[in-house]
Amino acid sequence: MTTSETLRRAGFALRAAPLVFATGARVARLDREVSFGALVAELRRARERPLAPRLANPAWLAGTLERLLPAVPPYRYGPCLRRALILLELWTRCGLEPTLHLGFRLQAPERDGHAWLTARTSDGSPLQVSGPNGTEPAFEL
Minimal CA–CA distance to 15: which of 71, 53, 46? Predict the structure, then answer.
């Protein structure tokens, strides 16, 4: 990566950090108020509030969130679900139609769940954050 590219990404991260924290806080607030299905539906309604073009970069938003994730609410969720829910709103505001995937690993002793997000960019390229990570996909929302 060139110095110019590094500086552009750093500038983007500085501009996007307040948005990432505000979105995390919104997800946490909604999570306390509504069911999980209603939460997902509300995050998808974010399309009504598109991002400014300088912030509408899904890949760079994902990178910014990844660096900030330990400090971003909602804290009651694990990192994968927190990441997926926050990016669900942010990517929707970028004009994408992301899919939230939930999967489960059912073999003992590692019975756990995992969440990830997929979308297609305007040119049809796939965009994915995380992946099944050894879980069996169970739900797409």
Answer: 53
